[in-house]
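Incident log, support desk, overnight shift.

02:14 A customer reports that sequence design results differ from what the structure should imply. Their input is reproduced verbatim below. On-call engineer (initials T.W.) acknowledged and began investigating.
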């Protein structure tokens, strides 16, 4: 039978990890005897963050405990996952370039192995400074803080373990759509406009996203599938505009498929009645 342990990990990682841990070479991580494997962040998908809403991407990993420890006694081990950039020691010493753990639960697989599942916590609010620069939209590394506790509650050992696993952070984008005229006579021209904006993590606003290729998609009434009917390039103000010929009732929407630093944006569809 599985047993669970719910762990709330604080975001002040410098204090949580401890100074001796921060300065320990990553190569010494195995000294704890805890083995970490199968780390997956956000199901392998990019993490898209806006300007105000908290984001909690999932994280899962397996741990194996050393001799003298058992998953039946969860008070004697801890494994806190986090994201970091650059050198682990440099980032930790300054307290910057860290994104800390949120809440996770470790489930007992057997006496020596556990499966941990939960989420990280990313808050773009200015007071948190988790993502406070647009340069944060990049590839982050995944680390785990490993701790073993003695039976009397004292810290036996603590190390950092770094893995080749990475997570991609992206700036959120938004798109709008307006199709007119509505209704329209069959065979006449429909003008479809909209605007593409992107999260600015420095100012906590959405700014116009210019020079981007966007796709106008259409779904006929009574069907389930959208198809791309036109492509356009956003203007200096993020504007999108193109024309199509009215044929049947249906829904129009703009889609931006994202890039290495920016997430996908799909507008709310605008319905056009063709008469």
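02:41 Re-run completed on a clean worker. Output:
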């Amino acid at each position: 039978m599985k047993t669970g342990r719910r762990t709330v990990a604080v975001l002040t990682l410098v204090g949580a990890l401890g100074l001796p841990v921060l300065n320990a070479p990553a190569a010494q991580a195995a000294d704890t005897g805890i083995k970490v494997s199968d780390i997956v962040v956000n199901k392998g998908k990019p993490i898209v963050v806006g300007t105000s809403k908290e984001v909690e991407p999932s994280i899962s990993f397996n741990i194996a405990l050393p001799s003298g420890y058992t998953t039946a006694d969860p008070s004697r081990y801890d494994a806190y996952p986090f994201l970091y950039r650059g050198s682990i020691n440099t980032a930790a010493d300054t307290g910057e370039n860290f994104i800390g753990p949120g809440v996770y639960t470790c489930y007992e697989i057997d006496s020596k192995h556990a499966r941990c599942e939960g989420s990280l916590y990313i808050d773009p609010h200015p007071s948190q400074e988790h993502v406070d620069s647009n340069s944060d939209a990049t590839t982050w590394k995944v680390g785990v803080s490993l701790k073993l506790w003695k039976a009397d509650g004292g810290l036996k050992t603590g190390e950092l373990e770094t893995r080749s696993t990475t997570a991609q952070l992206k700036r959120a984008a938004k798109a709008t759509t307006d199709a007119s005229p509505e209704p329209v006579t069959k065979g006449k021209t429909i003008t479809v406009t909209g605007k593409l904006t992107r999260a600015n993590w420095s100012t906590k606003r959405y700014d116009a996203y210019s020079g981007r290729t966007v796709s106008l998609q259409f779904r006929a009434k009574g069907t389930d599938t959208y198809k791309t009917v036109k492509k356009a390039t956003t203007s200096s103000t993020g504007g999108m505009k193109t024309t199509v010929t009215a044929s049947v009732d249906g829904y129009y929407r703009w889609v931006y498929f994202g890039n290495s630093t920016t997430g996908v944006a799909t507008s709310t569809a605008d319905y056009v009645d063709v008469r």
